[in-house]
Amino acid sequence: MPNRMKTSSAESLLAAFAGRDRAGAMMGDLTEMAATRGRLWFFAAYARTLVSLTWRIVLALFVADVGRELMFNLANLYFHVTPPTWRTSNAPHVLNSVGPLLACIMSTLWFALPFAAVRYGVRDRFVRLTFAIALGTTVTFLFIPWASLLCAAATVALAAVALFSTNWRKPMEVLAWTGAAGVLAIGAENAARLSFHPQGRIGHLLVNEWRMFAFQATLLIVAIVCSRLHGWLLDGPNTSGTAAS
């Protein structure tokens, strides 16, 4: 019974990355060969199989985290050299009032874009659509006179056209749900962060560590939602078990 439970758990872990059909075939082959080669060989072969299935996901998470951080550093650099008039309530720009929401959307998109590009390739329809929406959202967030308004209108129009397009509807659905997951996760993290009032030096250190962990957790949620929906809607049923976790 314990061996069966271990085998079932090992197969479930493989299924999370390869899908149930592939995971069953892999475990069948490994179990059959382990009967003559021994348990040590089985564990080594299983580890190699798991690494071969997950290395691209790990790389995608790393590149996505670095890419998102780079984009926000560039945005902050832009705000340091741009006249502050465009960020005041007196600026002739209706988008200034939705700055925090745009920041959440931009954070999600510039994480999802490199993550998906590494995982699925730059020719993937979801990746190309995400790039276009991320570019329009970024220009909107930068509050460039007139250009931001035009980009905001063009981005909304592009999303609407994609939803009614046969070829682009599913990528747009994946992007919409991924963006919604990111906005909700980041919003919840910000709300939880503002509710904490640490006391003392150690309290501040612990809270800072918790904030870093919580924010990384929100990015992981985005990766999981993106992977799941991409598998279900774009990759087909054979890879629907593929996930980022």
List the helices and strands and how they pair.
Elements: H1 2-18, H2 20-37, H3 39-81, H4 99-120, H5 125-141, H6 147-163, H7 169-195, H8 200-235
Give keywords.
single chain; 245 residues; mainly alpha; 0% strand; elongated; disordered C terminus
Give the gist of this structure.
With 245 residues, the protein is mainly alpha-helical. Helix content is 80%, strand content 0%.
Q: What is the number of helices?
A: 8
Helix content: over 70%
Shape: elongated
Whole-number total of structural domains? 1
| Rg, Å, rounded | 22 Å
SS-derived structural category: mainly alpha
Taken in chain order, the helices and strands follow as: HHHHHHHH
Report the biggest beta sheet as strand number plus sense, adding barrel if it closes: none
In round numbers, the mean pLDDT is 80
Query: Which regions have little confidence, pLDDT < 50, spanning 5+ residues?
Result: 238-245
What proportion of the residues form beta strands (DSSP E)? Answer: under 5%
Q: How far apart are the first and last residues' alpha carbons, in Å?
A: 27 Å
Number of strands: 0
Structural notes for this entry:
With 245 residues, the protein is an all-alpha fold. The protein has one domain (55-239). It is built from 8 helices and no strands. It has helices at 2-18, 20-37, 39-81, 99-120, 125-141, 147-163, 169-195, 200-235. It is elongated. The relative contact order is 0.11. Residues 238-245 have low confidence and may be disordered.
